[in-house]
Amino acid sequence: MQRIKIKELLKADPNNVIGNDYLVKGWVRTRRESKNISFIALNDGSTINHLQIVVDHDKFNEDFLKKITTGSAIGVKGQIVASPAPKQPIELHSNEIELYGEAPADEYPLQKKGHSLEFLREIAHLRPRTNTFGAIFRIRHHLAYSIHKFFNDKGFYYFHTPIITTSDCEGAGEMFRVTTLDLYNLPLTDHGKIDFSEDFFGKETALTVSGQLEGELGALALGEIYTFGPTFRAENSNTTRHLAEFWMIEPEMAFYDIIDNMNLAEEFIKYLIKYLLENCYEDLEFLNNMYDKELLDRLNHVLDTPFERLTYTDAIEILKNSNQNFEFPIYWGVDLQSEHERYLVEKYFKKPVILTDYPKEIKAFYMKLNDDDKTVKAMDVLVPRVGEIIGGSQREDNYDKLLKRIQENHVPMKDVWWYLETRKFGSAPHSGFGLGFERFMLFVTGMGNIRDVIPFPRTPKNIEF
Ligand code: ATP
Ligand code: MN
After folding, report:
1. What is the pLDDT of residue 237?
2. Measured between alpha carbons, how far is 353 from 424 in angstroms, rounded to an integer?
3. Which whole number is the average pLDDT over 22-42?
4. Do both 165 and 71 map to the same domain?
5. pLDDT confidence tier of residue 86, bands split at 50, 70 and 90
6. Of 129, 154, 307, 419, which is least surrounded by CB within 10 A?
7. Integer Cα distance of 267 and 455 in angstroms
8. Which DSSP letter does residue 459 get?
9. Contact present, 125 and 39 (Cβ < 8 Å)
10. What angle do CA 293, 110, 8 make, to 5 degrees?
11. Residue 94 and residue 216 share a domain
């Protein structure tokens, strides 16, 4: 008999499955005994919903049944019948049970419901088996899939940018080193410095903090590309919004100006939300009921509302006149903090906001300079609860201006000479942005901590699993 997934069974018209025999396999969430009967709630990961298995005690050995405890893995053959229970239309009456793996009740940590998220982080190897993390990781899958689908359907190409790089394009200086040098016996130059010419690549190398610069090379040939890959930042900021290893999506488009870029970002966010509402509603509903009662309303609201677009300069005026007690002071030229971003989004506009035209001093060297010589064509998309979710810009496509910005920012020419060459040969206006995958997960799941939306979070001093 072929195995069927619980999702398929529950999705089917009951009339088409009632009376038929099926084989299901999964993990026992609970087993309740009444007089001559047990009820097993079985989950196989395909859906948040469990299949109720009815076990007639007369058909099975008592010692065998005792081993079917919370967490054990079983396969069950039996007949689907209409269920008298109000919450589910069908249940399975078992004829045969195979026990694949026990989960001794005195040791299995997930006996009861309602463990704290903090506790579950300490058992990251088992937390996917909870309802919460099952829902989150299914949503994560659907989100990744819908990102590829969005771009593919629009004719963008998935462009793979390198993970090992030499350049720190953001100038953040927070990179993880990659080396095969013997750390206990480092080769030194005559000046007593580490001799990286002896290293694997013959150069100092690190894990990428962004695929953007290489992504631009793709856009200036294929037209519209996107990257979707792991990104590494050794920033020692122990916040609920930063990971040392996270995933980033970076579309880069030739012949797009900053307005086209904003339009794409807004369309993209709405597409993803719509896709998730259509394809993971049950999981979202579960998270809405358990963690964030406004989640579904918020997602629907964002879907229906045009994003507010305004300049950084206008935003500063609004913040100055807000009469709020911000921790960080407000003046033209300051880098906005999360408290400022959230005031604009949650209190003032009550919808997502796209801020543009930031002072050049607080943005990266590659952003296109405005005619005022003071601001750049940057755009940050801010959403409720999370703050900045996208950072992007129109890129400087003028050779001389880009060269000047590189020099002003002391970016070493040995790291970006190839980038600059694209402005020498067939330069074209182009734009792009970066969306933090886990930041978006926070937004769509309503979870409060970025450690809870990635299977194995990497944060300072935390790498057990
Ligand atoms: P922040 O100010 O929040 O640290 P950033 O300005 O460093 O963000 P960018 O360099 O613009 O971020 O990166 C693009 C996107 O990547 C951000 O909008 C955010 O969604 C995401 N991101 C950046 N750093 C992290 C991180 N450490 N963990 C998870 N996501 C991140
Ligand atoms: Mn940062």
Report:
1. 82
2. 35
3. 96
4. no
5. confident
6. 154
7. 28
8. B
9. no
10. 65
11. no
CA 237 to ligand 1: nearest atom: 27
The 10s digit of each residue's pLDDT in 323-379 is: 999 999 999 999 999 899 999 999 999 999 999 999 999 999 999 999 999 999 999
**Backbone φ and ψ of 431, nearest 5°:** -145, 165
The 10 Å Cβ neighbour count of residue 79 is 16
Distance 388 CA to ligand 1 centre (A): 8
Among 140, 207, 242, 395, name the best residue to mutate to test ligand 1's pocket (greatest count of ligand atoms within 8 A of Cβ): 242
Q: Is residue 271 situated within a structural domain?
A: yes
Quickly state the pLDDT bin for 174 (edges 50, 70, 90). Answer: confident
Phi-psi region of 171 (alpha: psi -120 to 50; beta: other; left: phi over 0): left
Q: What gap in Å lies between CA 217 and CA 254, rounded to an integer?
A: 10
pTM of the model: 0.96
In angstroms, the CA 200 to CA 195 distance is 11
**In which domain, by residue range, is 104 found?**
6-110
Q: Are residues 50 and 143 in the same domain?
A: no
Give the residues surrounding ligand 1 with Cβ less than 6 Å away.
170, 233, 235, 242-243, 246, 248, 388-391, 434, 436, 438-439
pLDDT tens, residue by residue, 104-120: 999 999 988 889 999 99
Distance (Å) from CA 241 to ligand 2 centroid: 10
What CATH number corresponds to the domain at position 323? 3.30.930.10
> In this structure, which residue's CA is closest to atom 1 in ligand 1?
388
Which residue is listed with tokens 């919004």?
241
Task: With respect to residue 117, please indicate whether it lies within any of the assigned structural domains.
Answer: no
- Residue 201 maps to a domain: no
Same domain, 273 and 399: yes
pLDDT at 169 over 70: no
Q: 145 with 106, same domain?
A: no
What is d(CA 98, CA 68) in angstroms, rounded to the nearest whole number?
10
Average pLDDT, the chain: 95
CB 366, CB 402: distance < 8 Å: yes
Does residue 267 lie within any of the structural domains? yes
CA angle 453, 444, 42 (to 5 degrees): 65
Query: In this structure, are 280 and 139 located in the same domain?
Result: yes
User: 26: domain CATH number?
Assistant: 2.40.50.140
Mean of the pLDDT values across residues 446-464? 96
Write down the residue that tokens 């935390």 correspond to. Answer: 462
Residues 319 and 261 in one domain: yes
- Residue 413 Cα, ligand 1 centroid: separation in angstroms? 25
